[in-house]
Design a protein that fits this description.
502 residues; Cobalt-precorrin-4 Transmethylase, domain 1; Methyltransferase, Cobalt-precorrin-4 Transmethylase, Domain 2; Helix Hairpins; 5-stranded mixed sheet
């Protein structure tokens, strides 16, 4: 004989909060009652009044939560094959009850009638406790064991299942990325019971809070993180005289400046970063510069929104769709296991998307020469137009240098040959997996540092640079190289980790 299944939510506290009909159904001696856990007031009351089957043993035996949910569904289905079954869960049967969701699907598959009686949710009591209207104020409910990253906090938030101090510490760490330790949150305990607890605390105190199976954290809305930046930029646009006067064109110089400062911050990192040893000081600088650059992007998107063109969400969604479309080997059925295959697919997709007639189309002419050369070379390399290794590239650099030497007294020819040489050097940098812009920037820094020492040495000797002849300047230069050699060697090795042999 096949029975039926009733999934009943036990509410947030004792049986006294349930409807009489639901209690009577669970008290029917002809019905098998299976409770998800005895660690709940209504479950323990029920167990005192009649025989129940608990699923606590499944939590202890299973390898993960998915296995627990499958085992619960199997236990209930097995019992329902011979009679009526009530599966009783804490709170509401439709809030955070993944086993109930699986049970409904499995019951439909094996054609066993299944009804769901949601029951009172802790969410209702939590809204009363903290004084919010989930429609007027907004509300998001998050699982402490699976917090999203990035963590949106622009709405009032209930973080559930903070059932251990370790979980509370993880929540404090996640919140602390965007909120100060002094930010006040509210811990809600055993809502619906006579001894319910409502305690305000700071994020800094959260790891030391006493928590249990019915602990929920309320976090007030805060304009922080990504969404907070967007909101703050809108406020500044309305209320700051400087921000209010800006246009896309007046911001261009700031965009360029912040881009170069970000590049400078990246150049301080090891060439294999994020692999290897992490210098948190360098990363702190990069974090700051990325923030400055991100502000420029948000600002321009805000101006576009004022014009009715697009907003920052559309910018993010546009690039999201683009990278999905250009990664069919990840999001589709295309097979690509090598970097070369990925790059070739990328260029083909871009050609089709942009209607290119040539790979040279839409390479920005305004790019600095080194960057443009690198971009051109990478495009053609993606379709196989490239040297097989670095040896012929070294030979090409030597060839171009010799040709420049021959025509060095002819300005026009020298200009052309010097361009060929620089193009070949950029190609060599690409084959050596060295960013030529960063390499040149570091050489500039090295030269400037050495020359500062030359100037200091001349001052200490009471001499002016213009009064020194070339041998004397060369001598000071050698002294400066010796003085800075350790620092320069360390900087050189960071350009290519293969040279970091002892």
């Amino acid at each position: 004989m096949t029975g039926r299944i009733s999934i009943i939510g036990l509410g947030p506290a004792g049986l006294d909060r349930l409807r009489r009909d639901d209690v009577d159904r669970m008290m029917d001696p002809a019905t098998t009652v299976i409770v998800r856990t005895l660690d709940h007031p209504a479950s323990s009351e029920l167990a005192d009044m009649r025989a129940v089957v608990t699923c606590d043993d499944l939590y202890e035996a299973a390898r993960d939560f998915d296995a627990v949910y499958d085992a619960i569904a199997d236990r209930v289905i097995t019992a329902a094959r011979t009679g009526a079954v009530v599966y009783a869960v804490p709170g509401s049967a439709v809030v955070g009850e993944r086993a109930a969701t699986r049970l409904v699907a499995e019951a439909a598959r094996v054609e066993i009638p299944c009804a769901v009686v949601p029951g009172e949710s802790f969410i209702d009591l939590a809204c009363v406790a903290v004084g919010i209207d989930p429609i007027a104020d907004g509300l998001q409910i998050l699982d402490a064991r699976a917090l999203p990253n990035p963590l949106p906090l622009h709405l009032p938030s209930l973080i559930t299942q903070i059932d251990a101090s370790l979980v509370a510490g993880d929540v404090a760490l996640a919140l602390g990325r965007v909120l100060p330790d002094s930010f006040t949150v509210t811990m809600l305990e055993r809502l619906g019971d006579d001894d319910a607890g409502i305690a305000e605390m700071t994020i800094g105190d959260l790891p030391r809070a006493d928590t249990g199976p019915r602990s929920t954290l309320f976090v007030p809305a805060a304009d922080v993180g990504w969404l907070g930046l967007v909101a703050t930029n809108r406020i500044l646009r309305r209320e700051c005289p400087w921000d209010a006067k800006q246009t896309h064109h007046t911001l261009v110089s700031h965009l360029i400046e912040e881009t170069y400062e970000t590049v400078d911050a990246i150049s301080a990192l090891p060439v294999d970063a994020p692999a290897g040893d992490v210098d948190l000081g360098d990363y702190l600088l990069l974090e700051e510069e990325l923030g400055d650059l991100l502000l420029q992007i948000v600002f321009h998107a805000g101006l576009a929104a004022e014009a009715g063109a697009f907003d920052v969400d559309e910018v993010a969604e546009g690039i999201r769709r683009k990278i999905v479309d250009r990664h069919p080997h990840v999001f589709g059925d295309v097979v690509a296991t090598e970097v070369g295959e990925v790059l070739a697919n990328w260029e083909e997709l871009k050609n089709a998307e942009k209607g290119r007639e040539s790979l040279m189309d839409d390479v920005p002419v305004a790019l600095p020469g080194i960057a443009r050369a690198d971009k051109i070379q990478r495009r053609v390399a993606a379709v196989g137009f490239d040297w097989p290794d670095d040896q012929p590239v070294f030979a090409k650099v030597s060839e171009e240098l010799e040709e420049l030497h021959i025509v060095r007294y002819d300005r026009d020819l020298a200009t052309a040959e010097l361009g060929d040489l620089l193009f070949a050097v950029v190609n060599l940098a690409r084959h050596l997996d060295v960013d030529p812009e960063i390499a040149l920037s570091r050489t500039n820094d090295t030269f400037a540092a050495r020359f500062r020492v030359v100037e200091r040495l001349a001052r200490e000797a009471g001499r002016r640079l213009r009064d020194l002849d070339l041998p004397e300047l060369d001598h000071l230069w050698d002294v400066a190289k010796t003085e800075l050699s350790a620092t320069e060697t360390e900087s050189l090795f960071t350009l290519n980790p293969e040279r970091n042999d002892p």
